[in-house]
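PROTEIN DESIGN WORKSHEET
SECTION A - STRUCTURE
LENGTH: 70
TOKENS:
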């Protein structure tokens, strides 16, 4: 996916969604590139459809596995 925030990737498997290269806290396209790489974000979209709880730190093995699929 490419947007005004630059290139980013989404990988889904079952209820889990991994987002790489996207910074949801930055709203400007050029500004996003100045802050460097953003850690991957992992969500359980069935339990957390609004994607408020990043599970990447709690489930690093799953985040790494989904990152390899991207």
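SECTION B - SEQUENCE
RESIDUE ASSIGNMENT:
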């Amino acid at each position: 996916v490419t947007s005004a925030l630059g290139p980013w990737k989404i990988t889904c498997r079952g209820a889990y969604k991994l987002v790489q290269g996207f910074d949801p806290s930055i709203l400007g396209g050029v500004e996003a590139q100045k802050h460097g790489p953003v850690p991957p974000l992992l969500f359980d979209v069935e339990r957390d459809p609004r994607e408020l709880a990043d599970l990447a730190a709690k489930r690093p093995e799953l985040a790494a596995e989904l990152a390899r699929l991207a």
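SECTION C - NOTES
The chain has a mean pLDDT of 82.
Residues 60-69 form the longest helix (10 residues).
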